[in-house]
Amino acid sequence: MSLLDQSRVPVLEALQAFRERGDVRFGPPGHRQGRGADPRVLDIVGAGVFASDVLVLNGLDDRRQSQGVIEQAQELMADAVGAEHTFFSTCGSSLSVKSAMLAVAGPGEKLLISRNAHKSVMSAVVVNGTDPVWVHPKFDPERHLAHPPEPDDVRRALEANPDAKGMLLITPTDWGSCADIKGVAAVCHEFDVPLIVDEAWGAHLPFHQDLPTWGMDADADLVVTSVHKMGGAIEQSSVFHLQGDRVDPTVLKQREDLLGTTSASSLVYATLDGWRRQMVQHGTELLGAALALSRTVREEIAGIDGLALMGAELVDEGYAYEIDPLVLTIDVRQLGITGYQAAEVARARHHVDFGASDSCRITARLTHSDDATTGEALVRTLRALVGDAEELEPSGVLDYPSAKGLQLESVMLPRDAFFADTEQVPVDQAAGRVAAEMVSPYPPGVPVLAPGELITQEALDYLTTGVQAGMFVAEAADPELSSVRVVAAAKP
Ligand SMILES: Cc1ncc(COP(=O)(O)O)c(C=O)c1O
After folding, report:
1. 120, 229, 259: which to mutate for ligand 1, most atoms within 8 A of CB?
2. Do you find a cis peptide bond into 249, omega within 30 degrees of 0?
3. Domain residues of the chain, as ranges?
4. What is the mean pLDDT of residues 269-274?
5. 356: β partners
6. Residue 443: is the preceding peptide bond cis (ω within 30°)?
7. What is the phi/psi pair of residue 32, to 5°?
8. CATH of the domain spanning 404-487
9. For residue 409, what pLDDT is reported?
10. Region 284-391: CATH code
11. pLDDT digit string (tens) for 130-185?
12. Distance from the CA of 230 to the center of ligand 1, in angstroms?
């Protein structure tokens, strides 16, 4: 039950007032609300982008921020979803996860982290100097897919590491499988440590009862979400939600301040503000329509030979606690092609872009913005893909690792390995060495190799056969993977 007037949009109202006042500004941004923007840029991005690009300080609000524009918008968001505190971030969840982790575990402190973490979490481990205790996800060998760990996995890790400061769980995964957040939170709280949920893919979850449970409703202490992914705010919009007393909101704010920008984007704030109002007023109806569309599209896809759509069987098989029905994860292996090929041909021939692809599958995500037209385009493209597949050259065959093969031994603190003296060794000499870089097939960006891990031949075989088959590992020093960056051998 909302306690505040949810029809208010403090950021949008401040932006409108700023534009109506027509303030003459002598501070950033230097484009002066588009006056100095190159017309060729205006032609493409539109004048509105510049007109609404205003700093908070001496722009949306005064020097002391005494109108509390952002605070009010954050309070409205907290009220809308039932969190105790909400903070906006304009630097994506890539930054928010770093701040959230830093609010729970300082440099050198232990944090339990589900190993199917996004590369931004792994970067946080390096930047923050976290001592990670990896909790291994459940590995689904037939699908070659990792699903979130279970409460008992977390319990074992906490029993073995009583000095751990908390746990970071990633749910929903990029492929739509969801964890038993409530069960994991209960275990964390038994050990009196907080649970952080990286819910980057779950911004929509609070706004419809037929969607999987979201972190705050499942007793998590801190939830990070990317509103640009499954919600309606622009890229880089991210939100922290907080409840209980295990994470101090002041500590979280100060640690976020260490990393965040001093020039936050009003476009991000304004669209976050507007999206919250839209969801409060129309979320049930809009997301209800998206769910209905997903049911129709799922039925259509189920009738296409050669495609295997992931669904509720994942729950029956014990791999997921819930699935997000709006995420359509489609295995294309029976067509004799990889997900990479499927995504490329769909873009090139049909102008349809999938969210993510890996060697086995592609994903299409439906949001409140989709409708029958986009649903039909998706089904049409998937049907065409069956014919397209016959014309494609078979790609290389991947050497998939076993579940154990993905659990590399950590022998150094990731930060120490990343900042150590390094050397670039030929890939055939990398097994047995300590990784000094992340190697993450992207998207979805879950590192196979992380700094500080002992590299195995099995992991290398997977990565090198993957790259030959179209896997993209852009952040590696050598994206072709003919060599790997490792910690330099000790000098004799
Ligand atoms: C699980 C997870 N966490 C965090 C992030 C980072 O989010 P952002 O792109 O908003 O920086 C991503 C991005 O894909 C993600 O998949």
Report:
1. 120
2. no
3. 284-391, 404-487
4. 98
5. 363
6. yes
7. 50, 60
8. 3.90.100.10
9. 95
10. 3.90.1150.150
11. 999 999 999 999 999 999 999 999 999 999 999 999 999 999 999 999 999 999 99
12. 11
